Zinc carboxypeptidase A 1 (Photinus pyralis), 299 residues
Amino acid sequence: SISFSKFNRFEEINAYMDKLAADYPKLVQLETIGQTTEGREMRVIQISTKRGSRKPVIFVDAGIHAREWLAPAQALYLIKELVENEANRHLLEKVDWHILPVFNPDGYEYSHTKARFWRKTRSNQGACKGTDANRNFGYHWGEVGTSDSSCSDIFRGPSAFSEPESRAVRDYILYRQNQIKLYLTFHSYGNYLLYPWGFTSALPHDDKELRSLGEKVNNAIVAAGGNSYTIGTSTNVLYPAAGGTDDWAKGVAGVELAYTIELPAGGSGFDPAPSQILGHVQQTFEGIKEFGKYIEYKF
Ligand code: 0X9
Ligand code: ZN
């Protein structure tokens, strides 16, 4: 079963979501949104107090990069708090949460069983396997900070949306384009709160709003004892990298509020000690609540 003193395997995460769906049938619905290259199911948990509601949706994903294990842990903790902790019911009053805890389950399992620092998907690409799904989205695809070599960790894929995992998330978001008001994607590591763009150093039209919401979130995390985040556009505070999910969500799907959250480091960077997981996910959850409050107030 799942816990926050270890990194849970994909099957454990699925079994937990099944249990939530069985125990909280009024609150939880599961949707399989696609299949990976190796045939695993990609499952989104929809948390809502009202079936068929037209409330604003916050869409969250994690684990697009296989080795960034704190990201699925954070998504799982968010799921647990939203569903199982009655003190958090207010976060569901005006907003629905749709969460994909493991974007890249083939890679995630591979990083558990064969190669700890695997990043990409597991598709066949000629010389080497796998595409960086965060270079595979179809907005300024193939531009700066990407590679056309299948052996590179930032391989963009042979074409935009070449990966079944990318297509599943693209289609899920496009289908709910008008309802999704905030897109959050969890990565690790380094404590960065990033927003578009990753393909250019130009600022988005709503840079001020994105930054000030980022600051609210960071203040809550710091107040909870977490490390402070560097806030800004991907290009300006981290590095340029085109074809990311966040840029696509904002630039194509029209989800104006889109953030990549680079969670804290630990161990090699990608593997905080099991004893550190709970503290990190609790502190970050305090920031995620601020995102929820903002969407509630704005829409
Ligand atoms: O390079 C990435 O994909 C992300 N960093 S990571 O170390 N987790 O790999 C940052 C992505 C930021 N967003 C865009 N560049 N669009
Ligand atoms: Zn990442």
Remarks:
- Helices lie at 10-23, 70-84, 105-113, 164-175, 207-223, 234-237, 245-251, 274-298.
- Strands lie at 28-35, 41-47, 57-62, 96-100, 180-188, 192-195, 230-233, 257-263.
- The pocket of N~2~-sulfamoyl-L-arginine (ligand 1) is lined by residues 65, 68, 134, 187, 194, 198, 234, 238, 241, 244, 246-247, 260, 262 (CB under 6 Å).
- The longest helix spans residues 274-298.
